[in-house]
From TrEMBL:
Domain SnoaL-like stretches: 4-125
Pfam family, one: SnoaL_4
Name the UniProt record assigns to this protein: SnoaL-like domain-containing protein
Species this protein is from: Ascochyta lentis
InterPro entries: NTF2-like_dom_sf (IPR032710), SnoaL-like (IPR037401)
Amino acid sequence: MSTSQELIRNTIAQVAIAINQKDWRSLETLFTSDAASTYPAPIGEHTSFRSFQKSLEGILKDISTQHSLTTQFINVDDSAMVTTYVTTVAAGAGGGATHTSSGVYKDELIMVEFDGQERWLLVKRIASTFP
């Protein structure tokens, strides 16, 4: 049986993988519908998952990404507060220019039961870049 921390870590990893693969259907299963997110421009601030998803779809249309998640701290209580360091490489279509950025995700997740199993969903993400 997986611990809550392992399940939380997996949820955050699945978000990165779903974005990299542009798997919007899978991404939707990892957030609450009213999840709030704040990212640096051009993604910006969103008060629902649907708004966040539409923004990502438009921005990443011709861009490939690879998210690498590293140092992480998980504090579990009634909800989970998670800090994760991230490095993202973005590449334009057809071998276009690449851009690398490093930053941190500050996530809040809640536990839900699905088919009798514990699952963790993101309700809030604040993403920032390192200077």
